[in-house]
Structures are given as C-alpha cells and as structure tokens.
Amino acid sequence: MTIKSLLITSLICTHLSLHADSNTDFAGSGKLNLTGLIPNIDGVAGAGISHSAIIGGYGTEDQIGAAGNFSQVQLSDFKLSTQSVLVGFYNRIELSHSKSEFDTQDVGAQLGLGEGYTFKNQTTSLKLRLMGDAILDQDSWLPQIAIGYSEKSSDNAAVLNLIGSQSDDDSEVFVSASKLFLSQSLLLNLNLRNTRANQNGILGFGGDKESKKEWLFEGSLAYLLNDNLALGYEYKASPDNLSFAKQEDWQDLFLLYNPSKHVSLTVAYVSLGEIALQPDQTGYYASISIQF
Known about the structure:
Blueprint: H1 3-19, E1 38-39, E2 45-46, E3 64-75, E4 79-89, E5 93-103, H2 107-110, E6 118-131, E7 144-154, H3 157-162, E8 169-181, E9 186-195, E10 214-226, E11 229-236, E12 250-260, E13 263-271, E14 282-291
Antiparallel strand pairs: 1-2, 3-4, 3-14, 4-5, 5-6, 6-7, 7-8, 8-9, 9-10, 10-11, 11-12, 12-13, 13-14
C-alpha cells in the first residue's frame, strides 16, 4: 500500500470513528433533490467536465452517500465513453474513480494508429470539504470550499511518447468553491486545477512545448428551472503543451433532469475545439447517474 493510500485510509477511518453512532441511518439520502450533483468525467462530483466543492451523493453529515455514472460524448470525429463511481462520507470526504475510453474512430487510421484505436485512462480522486455549506448556509455569502487531489494514468505510453507527451501518468491538485443561491435558483461552482494534462490526460501529461504544471480555471453555472430540472453552462480551461496538436478550452451547455431523486439524466451540447489535429470538435454528451 502506498503512502497516499495509507493517508486516504487514515482520513476515512478517523472520520468514521468520529461519527460512529448505532442510531445513525448511515445509508440515508438526506440532501435536497439535485444537490447530489453527478460524477464528472474524472469521477469527481460536479457537472460533466468541471469540479464542484459539493460532496457527491445524497449523504448528510450523519450519512454516507454514493453515485455512479455512465456517460458518452459523440464528437465530430471521436467518441469518449466514461464510467465513474464516488462515495461521500458524512458530507466531508469524497472518494472517486473513473475509467474512460477515447475512440479515434476513422481518424485513427489517418494518424497511423489504426482505425478505432482507443486511448484508455483512469483517474482516482480524494476531495475534502474545508468549510461552509453550499446548500444550508443561505444566510451567509461564504461558499463551500474544498480541496482535492487526483492521480491520472493512461494505458498508451508508447503512443504518448511518440507525440511528445512527457508522461503517461500524473497528479493534480484542485481547489473548489460552490454556492447555491436558493432565492435566485442558481448554483455556482468555481475551480482551480494545478495541471499539465493534455486533453484531460487522454494525450498524456506535459509536452515538448511546455512540461510544467499551471493553475487553470474551470467552472459551471446552473439555473434550477424547478425541483427536477436544471439548465447550465460549463467552461474548462486547458493547457497547450504539445507541438503535435493545438489544444483549446472546453465548454458545454447542459440540461439535467431527475425523473426521481436517485436517477439523473443529462444531455449537453459540447464544444472541445481542436483535438489531435482535427478542428472544431463539437457534438453531444449524454449520461445517466444513480445516486444515494
């Protein structure tokens, strides 16, 4: 077991011992509808591509929450499929994991990789709420603030080395702030990531143009149309590390619908810019999440 794994286990065990109570309904779902958010493409609670300070799942400070998500993005020339799962402990700690497959489809043959060549990635993250409550603290302007750590890896080391990527695995640190303005029906999420991930890690980390990490902004704004429906926008800044191909910022417009408290359906129009020499990669995102 690594030092990082031991640290994570220690944090969880300490928190569990502080909350141990035979009368507690650990498996309850006490949060308001829609406030569990969904696991994003990294598995972290947020929207489709951005992080949030909110701890995922519907568990309150006396409960354990969880969520699972399957999503697919169909772009002009590529397809991205992701499976994510997270567990939230007592509205304080969140652990998450995701696996993704980026299918190059016909472009794979043009790049000399073979038609349908697939980049496979994994991300494991830990998030800790430091202060504030985005939902309950309506009498305060203080947002909920969280910090997090992610480890990312790719199964495509040989190809990544050929295109100039510095590494096939890396880590990220992030700081998030979130606030729900109930009277205005608005949820605002802001996040800073210390990263050098190329296309979120799909094309490795660092490159021949730039190898150092930098702090980049991402965020989302959601308007709650009613108790079961939200309309929103996301933006995710990206580094541009590779001479092989330019990288541009990501953004999307999404609609999130909860037919029941424990099921979330999301659709979005996405614009990811140039990817692997293919310009104007736009398309559609769809996901289903199960939350408790």
